[in-house]
């Protein structure tokens, strides 16, 4: 049978306009718009990063080395292939200002540059001057520029002096814009720029100090970056060189944008699922009103397939309208607000309409509309000619025919598969999909339970007429309890889970800080300084614990003779350089989980003890050989033990530990963590930094504050996504309230006829809405706490405790939201005249 007749019937139905489908269109459009907007912003940032890749990187390509400068052979290769080369040295240090004999110190990320810096772009200084002139300094002192926040923290003004290590510098200007700042990644301190020759007498770049060198290359136009990358890595990869080029000038930013965008799209899918509840309710209500039409068509000989296809085409056409509206809204709003968004972004962006995110949002919208309308449409087949003028849909069976169940399962699998493919995060997608499905099942069961409880409680509310009326209405078959609980409950569940996760993550970072985290990290301690360093701390009763270890950095280049990235993929252990240490005796508080430790007197070939959890993630086992490049030298050794390493304590933790004979001959420094009373921290820093100007102190509380700021921005972005979900739920509530307006009008007319006052009827309507909102809020709170617990325990691996202010806010929000939606559609029923309403029902 062709689709011509169903299409002709569907067109006639569509001539009736959009009455009854406004909420349908709004829910679908809002869900699609949220996903399209997130995708458009992500694509705009990625386009900006691609366009400005060379400017972000500071050159067409970059060769990065840890702990050392490039060798003559490496420099010769650069000179042969590049038009110009700029050398940058990056490290942390303490900036010191002496004010009347009282030192003030602040952590800073120092960038030492040569005369060719920057190859691309320009540094913006305040007051305006050339960077080269600023770094020359005055009065015999080298110059420096600092970020404004560091200048204010130290109370400096241009022309005053400060010290890095043992070298004095004169502050010449504030650094308003650093041309290659996006390529630097996350830093614990504000930026200071100096000239590399000025550090010759500062004592900060001694052998073993923690620093990296970056060589930016200005390449001839038309250079094949892929071929040059392969040539450089083939020649220098084993020497610990890391290559980047303008194709991905800020990989850390790109990775963050991609993953954050994928996560927000999954949050957007939650909103689309909430909208799907509204879509399903709208279709069900519309088809219930078409029972007479359907029965008439069956009387005239229309087959079941004709009925189904007619309304399938009609709903499909309206779904396309909603999706197009959502795409227009989600695509155009970021473009129109592009200048405002770009001003707030720390990276370049290029706002325009991009087909990929719009296509992704359209696919999500189509599949959601299909999944949530198929079951209501399938029930049209159950309307028979004998049921003319009866509400056949109200008594239809719960589950449709098997073929519709199979189509639903196929559509759901396709939606989850595409979401995993588009987001690139399979497990997060499965967790999100499973959580949504579980929440919908729980909420549907809760809606059924609420109706049963309300029905039983109505008999107990004698003497409280408004309450009894409200409970009786909730338990009735025509009351929209299911729509309210499903739509509002799912939106509140997402918001509750976000609140619990955010609160517990903050508690994990800050709540237990005095008990588990050190006061300071001290780095770049020379070996001959350790005796005096320990003597100062051991004599201080406020110091509870000191942990020290040799510190080197190396790149894992091979695993069992294969490239490490080929074995470990994108795992963080093989993605960059890692901290490496050595020890003879088994360190205190270290637990071996497999294998044996080499022992204090071991003097044989190199051996490796690997972090157990990270080793399991990489698929390593005892006996596997790891090649680590340290200071340009490859060290290959077998794994002879795995040990437990807890990186969550903010203490010293190394993925890779070796026996002393393998590393102690290489230039290196020591790292130390100091656990002390907070009131003693200032004196400890003053004494140690004064005695050893080359060491760098990282105050853990300050580092935690920087991380908390990042988490705050992530939580804000996620909360906005959850808020969009809640807004969709509110639209569904409005749709449910509007659909039930006729029933409430009739109810109010009967009650008025029996002598009820408007006030008591209004109180009944308000109680009905508030009780449903309270029930939805309580169920959502349970689902949100469960989701927050699962994410905190199994993904974040933190402790979990209920964040009660957020929890109570969710319950209050549920009550107020349903109350507002219910009262919005209560005034017309209250104002209707009973005689007119009752005559119309005859």
Which key terms come to mind for this protein?
842 residues; 4 domains; six-stranded mixed beta barrel; six-stranded mixed barrel; 55% helix; elongated
Present the secondary structure layout:
Blueprint: H1 4-14, H2 22-51, H3 53-57, E1 61-66, H4 72-81, E2 84-99, E3 102-113, E4 124-126, H5 131-136, E5 143-147, H6 148-154, E6 161-164, E7 167-177, E8 191-195, E9 211-218, H7 225-236, E10 242-245, H8 251-289, H9 291-299, H10 304-336, H11 338-344, H12 355-378, H13 402-423, H14 426-458, H15 465-475, H16 481-511, H17 513-516, E11 520-525, H18 530-538, E12 543-559, E13 562-563, H19 564-568, H20 572-575, E14 577-582, E15 592-595, E16 608-611, H21 612-618, E17 625-630, E18 633-643, E19 656-658, H22 660-663, E20 669-676, H23 681-691, E21 696-699, H24 700-739, H25 741-753, H26 758-795, H27 804-824, H28 827-831, H29 834-841
Parallel strand pairs: 3-8, 5-7, 14-19, 16-18
Antiparallel strand pairs: 1-9, 1-10, 2-3, 2-6, 2-9, 4-7, 5-8, 6-7, 11-20, 11-21, 12-13, 12-14, 12-17, 12-20, 15-18, 16-19, 17-18
Subcellular location: Cell membrane
Main location: membrane
Protein name: Drug:proton antiporter
């Amino acid at each position: 049978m062709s689709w011509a007749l169903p299409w002709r019937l569907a067109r006639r139905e569509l001539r009736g306009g959009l009455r009854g489908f406004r909420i349908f269109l709004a829910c679908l459009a809002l869900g699609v718009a949220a996903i399209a907007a997130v995708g458009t912003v992500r694509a705009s940032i990625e386009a900006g990063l691609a366009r400005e890749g060379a400017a972000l990187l500071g050159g067409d390509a970059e060769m990065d080395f840890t702990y050392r400068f490039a060798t003559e052979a490496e420099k010769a290769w650069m000179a042969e292939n590049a038009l110009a080369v700029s050398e940058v040295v990056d490290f942390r240090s303490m900036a010191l200002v002496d004010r009347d004999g009282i030192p003030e110190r602040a952590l800073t990320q120092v960038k030492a540059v040569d005369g060719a810096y920057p190859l691309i772009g320009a540094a913006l200084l305040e007051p305006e001057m050339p960077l080269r002139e600023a770094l020359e300094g005055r009065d015999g002192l080298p110059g420096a520029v600092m970020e404004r926040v560091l200048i204010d923290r130290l109370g400096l003004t241009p022309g005053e002096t400060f010290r890095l290590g043992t070298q004095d510098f004169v502050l010449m200007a504030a650094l308003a814009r650093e041309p290659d700042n996006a390529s630097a990644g996350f830093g614990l301190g504000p930026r200071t720029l100096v000239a590399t020759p000025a550090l010759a007498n500062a004592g900060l770049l001694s052998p073993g100090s923690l620093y990296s060198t970056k060589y930016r290359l200005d390449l001839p136009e038309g250079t094949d970056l892929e071929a040059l990358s392969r040539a450089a890595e083939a020649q220098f990869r084993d020497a610990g060189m890391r290559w980047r080029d303008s194709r991905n000038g800020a990989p850390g930013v790109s990775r963050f944008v991609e993953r954050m965008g994928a996560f927000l799209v999954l949050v957007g899918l939650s909103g689309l699922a909430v909208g799907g509840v509204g879509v399903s309710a709208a279709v069900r209500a519309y088809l219930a009103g078409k029972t007479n039409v359907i029965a008439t068509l069956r009387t005239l000989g229309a087959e079941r397939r004709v009925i189904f296809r007619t309304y399938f085409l009609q709903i499909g056409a309206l779904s396309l309208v909603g999706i197009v509206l959502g795409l227009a809204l989600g695509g155009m709003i970021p473009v129109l607000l592009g200048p405002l968004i770009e001003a707030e972004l720390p990276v370049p962006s290029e706002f325009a309409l991009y087909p990929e995110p719009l296509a992704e949002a359209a696919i999500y919208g189509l599949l959601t509309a299909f999944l949530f309308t198929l079951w209501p449409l399938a029930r049209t087949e159950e309307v028979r000619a004998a049921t003319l003028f009866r509400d056949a849909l109200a008594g239809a069976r719960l589950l449709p025919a098997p073929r519709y169940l199979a189509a639903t399962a196929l559509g759901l699998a396709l939606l989850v598969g595409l979401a995993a493919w588009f987001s690139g995060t399979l497990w997060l997608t499965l967790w999100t999909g499973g959580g949504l499905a579980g929440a919908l099942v729980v909420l549907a069961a809760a809606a059924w339970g609420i109706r049963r409880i309300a029905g039983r409680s109505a008999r107990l509310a004698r003497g409280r007429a408004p309450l009894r009326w409200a409970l009786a209405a909730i338990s009735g078959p025509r009351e929209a309890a299911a729509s309210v609980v499903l739509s509002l409950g799912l939106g509140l569940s997402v918001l509750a889970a976000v609140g619990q996760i955010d609160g517990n993550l903050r508690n994990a970072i800050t709540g237990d800080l005095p008990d588990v985290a050190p006061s300071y990290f001290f780095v770049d301690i020379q070996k001959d300084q350790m005796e005096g360093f320990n003597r100062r701390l051991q004599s201080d009763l406020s110091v509870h614990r000191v942990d020290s270890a040799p510190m080197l950095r190396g790149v894992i280049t091979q695993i069992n003779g294969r490239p490490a990235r080929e074995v470990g993929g994108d795992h963080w252990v093989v993605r960059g350089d890692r901290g490496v240490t050595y020890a003879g005796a088994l360190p205190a508080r270290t637990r071996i989980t497999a294998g044996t430790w080499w022992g204090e007197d071991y003097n044989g070939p190199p051996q490796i003890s690997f972090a157990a959890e990270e080793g399991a993630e990489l698929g390593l086992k005892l006996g596997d050989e790891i090649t680590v490049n340290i200071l340009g030298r490859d060290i290959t050794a077998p794994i002879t033990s795995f040990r437990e390493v807890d990186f969550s304590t903010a203490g010293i933790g190394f993925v890779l530990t070796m026996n002393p004979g393998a590393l102690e001959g290489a230039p290196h420094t020591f790292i130390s963590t100091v656990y002390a009373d907070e009131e003693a921290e200032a004196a400890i820093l003053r004494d140690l930094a004064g005695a050893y100007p080359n060491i760098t102190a990282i105050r853990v509380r300050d580092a935690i504050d920087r991380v908390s700021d990042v988490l705050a921005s992530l939580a804000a972005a996620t909360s906005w996504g959850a808020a969009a979900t809640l807004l969709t739920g509110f639209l569904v509530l409005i749709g449910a309230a509007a659909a039930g307006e006729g029933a409430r009008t009739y109810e109010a007319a009967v009650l008025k006829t029996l002598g009820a006052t408007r006030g008591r009827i209004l109180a009944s309507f308000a109680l009905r809405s508030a009780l449903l909102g309270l029930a939805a809020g309580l169920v959502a709170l349970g689902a949100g706490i469960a989701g927050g617990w699962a994410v905190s325990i199994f993904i974040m691996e933190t402790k979990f405790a209920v964040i009660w202010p957020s929890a109570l806010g969710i319950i209050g929000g549920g009550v107020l939201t349903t109350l507002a939606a219910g009262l919005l559609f209560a005034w017309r029923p209250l104002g209707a005249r009973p005689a007119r309403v009752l005559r119309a029902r005859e």
